[in-house]
Amino acid sequence: MSHTAGEKVFDLLFVILLPIVCLLLDPGVFSGSFPGSPASLGIPVMVLAVVGLAMTAMALRLTLAGRWPTLDAAVAGAFFLGGAVALYLGVLLTPFTLMGFVVLGLVPFFTAFACFRAGLRGMRARGPRVAIVGGLVTLALAGSYQVGADMLVDATIRQATEGRDPSAAAHEAWRRAGRLEPLVPRREFYRRGMEFLASADLPGARESRTALEWEVVRD
Question: Where do the domains of the chain lie?
Fold first, then answer.
């Protein structure tokens, strides 16, 4: 089925443009630690990576306009994962929708529709096997990004705390957090950093946690 002009506008709006706005206006879905949130599950960067890969897949689809059927099928997996993540975020945003933030709360459901539609059309181009492989690759890339981000934050915190008192260690860690953006968002650095300090066997770890909280408040 051809990609009509209206569908292109819809996909551009709800898979690329409006999701960016929603991420910038995040009411706490990614940074909040309430049950079921990406942060509480330890996968906020992974979720962001899936969203980013789905956006990239849609940009390719809109640019190439179905000229490479195999590529359409390969990115179908990214669309299916992106649609699943959009539904998940839409459910998390339901309380905000009920409080009056209707636009913010409904965007993920339209995003999910656009992603699933694109995924189904791409899968029809070469069958489900290529789409499944594409989905597994997308999942592996997003998961690797989360693991890599966690390891990077852990190493940064450990280096920042060596030979420093807790206050100086927290200040140095937060300064280094700025260098890691946008690779690792500061809110994710803070979340993972607090987890690391809670579990790591480091001198003054508890005091460093308190000092890091103050660094965030002062920033």
Answer: 5-132, 144-218
